[in-house]
Automatic annotation (TrEMBL):
SUPFAM superfamilies attached to this UniProt entry: ClpP/crotonase
Ranges in coiled-coil conformation: none
Gene3D superfamilies listed in its UniProt record: 2-enoyl-CoA Hydratase, Chain A, domain 1 (3.90.226.10), Lyase 2-enoyl-coa Hydratase, Chain A, domain 2 (1.10.12.10)
Protein name (record): Delta2-dienoyl-CoA-isomerase
Length: 290
């Protein structure tokens, strides 16, 4: 059975283009606007893959639409959130309204941040317009590729709010040029794929459009999927810990992590495969619950 079986939903197309690799495509015409239903399904998808123990070792996120990644949040749903929350709180005092709104925002953040919780790397392939929420989505992924035609904007200020789903939390950790980052966040100015690479937001600009950047991302996913899932998963967790902690704290965390991880069968299998000049065979991280 394909690892992608039964994972596709209304606006998310999921396929398995290579062993242990999933391709997740946004498919909500005309502009992939994220409604509550859409972003909830996006977060639930990643959590489901992990919970069910599917032997996914890398994933690629992209848009299935030919001209853009996403125009951001569905403005109709954004209006609902600011008018009493998604739970429909009305005639409540300020404190109750704020608590309801905070719960909605936390759920939104949790969904868009789902790729970070996965034990496998998530590569995002961006093409065309990537506005507002697109930056939140991109920032929560492990590796970010852009087609040379990609255009980005931290758009939230234009609709009267500070970006609140991840952009302003992630970008200071990702981008070295804080002055330019603030300029873009305050002004909502469009910036190119070349600018994004110069900022450090993307690691590679791929000549061409959607097909070319997706192909490049899938090629990298295939390489990663051939590595030890214990080693790759551990590397992801240690890097995330390093981002948010001191060097000393991270070394302590790494020692504790590898005290267990170094007992893996993947190490002797890697060595044996290298000596025999064959492709190593690694077990799944956990037994599937399918």
């Amino acid at each position: 059975m394909s690892l992608a079986a039964d994972l596709s939903s209304k606006w998310l197309k999921v396929s398995e283009p290579a062993p242990h690799v999933l391709h997740i495509e946004f498919a909500r015409p005309p502009v992939n606007a994220f409604s509550v239903e859409f972003w909830s399904a996006y977060g639930a998808l990643f959590d489901r893959i992990t919970t069910e123990g599917r032997d996914v070792r890398a994933a690629v996120v992209s848009s299935g639409l030919p001209k853009l990644f996403t125009a951001g949040i569905d403005l109709a749903d954004a209006a609902k959130i600011t008018e009493g929350g998604l739970g429909g709180v009305t005639n409540a005092d300020g404190a109750r309204s704020a608590l309801a709104l905070r719960q909605d925002m936390k759920a939104f953040q949790h969904a868009i941040g789902a790729p970070e919780r996965c034990p496998f790397p998530v590569i995002v392939a961006v093409h065309g317009l990537a506005l507002g929420l697109a930056i939140d989505i991109v920032s929560a992924c492990d590796i970010r590729y852009a087609a040379e035609s990609a255009q980005f904007s931290i758009k939230e200020v234009d609709i009267g709010l500070a970006a609140d789903v991840g952009t302003l939390a992630y970008l200071p950790k990702i981008i070295g040029n804080h002055s330019l980052m603030r300029e873009l966040a305050y002004s909502t100015a469009m910036f190119s794929a070349a600018d994004a690479e110069r900022l450090g937001l993307v690691s590679r600009v791929v000549p061409g459009g959607r097909d070319e950047v997706v192909a490049a991302a899938l090629a990298l996913a295939g390489v990663i999927a051939g590595k030890s899932p214990v080693a790759v998963s551990g590397t992801k967790r240690i890097l995330l810990h390093s981002r948010d902690h001191s060097v000393a704290d991270n070394l302590e965390y790494t020692a504790a992590w590898n005290a267990a991880a170094l007992q893996t069968h993947d190490i002797p299998e890697s060595i044996a495969a290298a000596k025999a000049r064959r492709v190593p065979k690694f077990a799944a991280l956990r037994k599937a619950k399918l």
